[in-house]
User: Fold this.
Amino acid sequence: MEESAILQLNGTFDFAGELSSKLVSFFKNQIEIGNENFSTTLKYTEVAKISYNSRTVKILMKNGSKIKIPCCSSDIKRIKTILRARKDDNIIEVGGSALVRLSDLCFVVPIRSNDIRVLKTSIIRRISEHFYPACEAVSISTDIFNNISICCESEKGSEIQLVSCEDLEAALSYFDGKLKLIIKQ
Assistant:
């Protein structure tokens, strides 16, 4: 039985050097782009980065090719939901951001993965850049900060502790990629 597409979009855009009308189909494990003359399959594991603006989804492939798919804001929300649900070894960039609160200090940190360890490392490096600006953030050891806990603040002010990758992924989905995080020791 053939798998049906989760979402299909029709649009005119440049792909493979050809500006024409194409059908973009999002499936569970791949994206298919094509028209009456050709069809191409892109595996989610081949995607390096995904970014969004108000009318375009931009997909950067690991081979360096770029695809800009024009669509409306409701379709962009649906695409974000589909791509967040794909967890192929955390290869797809989540594209979220976190406002991190540490005592009376606030930092903004990009969320590049749905792996909680990667998020902790990003937060620790960002905080280290503030306290030790002369040191390069890459040279700071993050092993001594393994005991910190990360809590996500909800709209009502309650705190939700993020312990696992699934917690982070659920929070990103629920809060639409914008998290307010509190660091505790």
